[in-house]
Amino acid sequence: MLAALAAAMPSLGRSNQSPIRKDNPTRADTKHATGGRQVMVKGVPVHYEVRGSGRPMIMIHGFVVDSRSLMGSMEPIFARKAGWRRIYFDMPGMGKTPASEAIASSDEMLDLVLSFIDAVIPGERFTLIGQSYGGYLARGVLARKADAIDGMSLICPVAIAERTKRDLPQRTVVTKNDAWLASLSRTDADAFTPNFVVQTETTWRRFRDELLPAIRGADQPSLEKLSQHYALSFDVDNLQTPFTKPVLMLTGHQDSDVGYRDQWKLLQNYPRATFAVLDGAGHGLAIEQAGLFEKLTEEWLDRLGAEFSHPRLS
Length: 314
What we know:
single chain, 314 residues, alpha/beta, Rossmann fold, 8-stranded mixed β-sheet, two-stranded parallel ribbon, 11 helices, 36% helix
């Protein structure tokens, strides 16, 4: 997730003054929800959930948060788009997957993700969605398994692992409701305001429900250790050949955590990519610009569907 969120974790972990709702199925998963599952991967009991049926889609969440962050954004879309088996999982130290001393670097995390994919969909083709740190790992998966991947969506992806080398816009707040913000507790305000450029009750409620429980429950020591080895040992974007399947890359114009200019440079790897920079969106783009996010994702799913129905000649 956000570097600012990671920095705020110690204070966030001490108090939870906001009412947190229990998870309820969305319209998309009421019929097909299978509940939580667990699979042992490299000695780690990885928690995952499967929603829907059809072609497999692997969802890789961001740093500090868990699979709920992608469920909240993606499941409303699949209420309108059938034919996809969405596989959400929690990375070690986040959500319901415990931390492991064996996962102390992004190289080890990528190995776990690759092994997880082999364990839950052995031999199957799949599509990838990665958000933030998950977008970095998704490109690592692509570098290793491009021949098995039918498409990829990157949501505010980390383009450059080392923060000091990123080309970032200045921190900006686009929309702010000062009267409503004054009603938040100091703890909640400190968690919310540094990470959203649209600071309204609507964005707060989704942050509270989809992100904050995971942030406050994250295994802080293990993630701190992982953050010290955040960069992969190889260049994930040095592909041998361009990836010619449908790609969607969404960035926020006000994203001061991972930016948008560095991501533009990745387009040479994706001849069939749609690239969008959304105004009024920071690193919480999928929440801050939910309508545009859903429309652009639906269009990407339509492109994928067209590929399956009418495969291009090689």
